[in-house]
């Protein structure tokens, strides 16, 4: 794991730290990729983490005077999903961010982090490439803006230098004559890495296609275009025959491998299927139909923003204590600087209600609230919690009275072996804070990040419904 964890208060400070530590340092944003990479020993040289998530002004999504949409490096997938501007003018990116993991992970995971991890299966890259995106890389000495298509050099490899930080993501918003879509095929409906993903952005003059961008993920070392299919579509209307041919041509670009998620042959066939589906949907103008209005965020009242800004940066090396408030009580913890927030809560603060199921962000058993947002504590470095307020499952009951979601779990018999229960309770409490009367669909969305190995979801969903009723009674 890391030796020193810096939390700079300004961008200049972050860039100076990168310049100073270079190859042994990495930026950490949401941490949902880098923490796992460090845990698995995939980055043995990295000893310094530079946490940029408390630098103000880096989480904006704006249309600038240059006519481009600019996305800051701290914009999370949930912020993308909630953005009206992106919903109207960059639907494929919103669809990709919505397909990413679970609400707790999306509350932390950034689009910038997705780009820089540079996995061929990463979802945001596919629509961003189809939208003609550029990224801006800044060091303390220089700044450069390069097309995304030139950014990737191989599996998890980019042209970014050790002293550079990605500071901006920009692309032209879609106009009335341009339409786009992102589609993903995973092995389950939520929390799934793409077996294949496809994005298509088409420019029309009347019914005729005048520009076409079709990108594919998880079928080559980097996200790729589909030049043969794109060329074929130019000057054509989207008839069934044109679409069938384009979908077949798209498979010519794919050079997939066999792996645990699918064979190369299956992936190539899915490129055809998804491309056909994408083009047919764009022809019919139904690309918005499956996209949810009012998606569940589990971010409380903060709209996903880090509301607490720093007057000065922090350094957590061997000895500096982590000061935080947990369930309303102040704690000063020493010796936890190299742990995750989950381990610090359990081992140093002694609150063992928060469970470790997978330690990889997959199961939700470690869900806590940090500064009001539901997050996976196993994906957060403990020093990130310095000067934050954390609520664990032990903090849900107030004045000896159980939270309605806790009471409902007992009433409905929703606790089985009980291991996953704290995580479900936290997801449920945050959902009820956001939506006091959630629909069945909203309940299901709120627990996409929570797995129950005893698999009794019916009673859990009933308990969520019952909790809403209890809450309503309390309010009357
Ligand atoms: C359970 C789970 C499910 C997931 N599901 C999906 C999925 O469905 N689809 C998908 O695409 N991904 C998925 N991911 C991967 C991950 O969540 C995303 O790639 C995410 O967008 C990474 O963002 P982050 O802010 O957490 O990155 P971090 O982990 O903070 O950083 C990732 C990399 O980017 C670098 N970095 C981050 N920001 C900057 C910057 N501004 N400048 C320079 N370097 C920077 C870091 O040094 C690191 O190398 C999943 C992860 C988990 C744990
Ligand atoms: S998601 Fe954190 S332990 Fe499983
Ligand atoms: S109740 Fe046993 S894992 Fe969910």
Account of the protein in words:
- With 476 residues, the protein is α+β, with helices and mostly antiparallel strands.
- It has 2 domains: 223 residues, Uridine Diphospho-n-acetylenolpyruvylglucosamine Reductase, domain 3 (2-Layer Sandwich), CATH 3.30.465; 161 residues, Beta-grasp domain (Ubiquitin-like (UB roll)).
- Helices cover 31% and strands 20% of the residues.
- The chain has 16 helices and 20 strands.
- A 5-stranded antiparallel β-sheet has the order 4-5-10-6-7, with no helix packed on it. Strands 17-16-20-18-19 form a 5-stranded mixed β-sheet, with helices on both faces.
- The longest helix has 21 residues.
- It is globular.
- The chain starts with a strand and ends with a helix.
- The mean pLDDT is 96.
- Bound molecules: flavin-adenine dinucleotide and FE2/S2 (inorganic) cluster (2 copies).
- The site of flavin-adenine dinucleotide (FAD) has 30 residues, from strand 2, helix 7 and strand 10.
> What's the CATH topology label of the largest domain?
Uridine Diphospho-n-acetylenolpyruvylglucosamine Reductase, domain 3
Gap between N and C termini: 51 Å
CATH architecture assignment of the largest domain? 2-Layer Sandwich
Please, how many domains? 2
Q: Quote the average pLDDT.
A: 96
Name the structural class. alpha+beta
């Amino acid at each position: 794991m890391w030796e020193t964890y810096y939390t700079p208060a300004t961008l200049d400070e972050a860039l100076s730290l990168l310049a100073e530590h270079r190859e042994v340092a990495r930026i950490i944003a949401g941490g949902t990729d880098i923490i796992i990479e460090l845990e698995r020993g995939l980055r043995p040289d990295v000893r310094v983490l530079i946490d940029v998530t408390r630098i103000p002004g880096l989480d904006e999504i704006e249309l600038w005077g240059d006519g481009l949409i600019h996305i800051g490096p701290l914009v999370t997938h949930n912020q993308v999903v909630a953005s009206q501007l992106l919903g109207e003018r960059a639907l494929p990116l919103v669809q990709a961010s919505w397909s990413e993991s679970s609400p707790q992970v999306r509350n932390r995971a950034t689009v910038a982090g997705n780009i820089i991890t540079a996995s061929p299966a990463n979802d945001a890259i596919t629509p961003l490439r189809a939208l003609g995106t550029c990224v801006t890389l800044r060091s303390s000495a220089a700044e450069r803006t390069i097309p995304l298509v030139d950014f990737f050099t191989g599996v998890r490899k980019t042209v970014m230098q050790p002293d550079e930080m990605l500071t901006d993501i920009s692309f032209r918003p879609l106009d009335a004559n341009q339409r786009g879509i992102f589609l993903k095929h995973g092995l389950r409906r939520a929390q799934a890495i793409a077996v294949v993903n496809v994005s298509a952005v088409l420019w029309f003059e009347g019914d005729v296609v005048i520009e076409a961008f079709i990108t594919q993920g998880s079928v080559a070392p980097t996200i790729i275009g589909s030049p043969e299919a794109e060329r074929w579509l130019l000057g054509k209307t989207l008839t069934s025959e044109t679409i069938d041919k384009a979908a077949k041509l798209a498979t010519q670009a794919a050079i997939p491998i066999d792996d645990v998620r699918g064979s190369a042959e299956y992936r190539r066939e899915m490129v055809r299927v998804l491309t056909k589906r994408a083009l047919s949907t764009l022809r019919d103008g139904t690309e918005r139909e499956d996209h949810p209005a009012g998606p569940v965020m589990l971010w409380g009242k903060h709209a996903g923003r880090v509301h607490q800004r720093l007057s000065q940066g922090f350094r957590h090396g061997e000895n500096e204590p982590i000061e935080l408030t947990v369930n309303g009580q102040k704690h000063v913890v020493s010796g936890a600087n190299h742990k995750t927030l989950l381990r610090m809560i359990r081992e140093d603060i002694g609150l063992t209600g928060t469970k470790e199921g997978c330690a990889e962000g997959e199961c939700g058993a470690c869900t806590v609230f940090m500064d009001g947002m539901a997050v996976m504590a196993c994906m957060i470095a403990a020093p990130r919690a310095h000067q934050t307020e954390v609520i664990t499952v032990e903090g849900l009951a107030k004045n000896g009275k159980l939270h309605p979601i806790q009471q409902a779990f007992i009433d409905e018999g929703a606790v089985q072996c009980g291991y996953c229960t704290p995580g479900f309770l936290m997801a449920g409490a945050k959902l009820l804070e956001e939506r006091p009367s959630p629909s069945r669909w909203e309940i299901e969305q709120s627990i996409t990040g929570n797995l129950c190995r005893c698999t009794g979801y019916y009673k859990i969903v009933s308990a969520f419904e019952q909790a809403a009723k209890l809450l309503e009674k309390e309010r009357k």
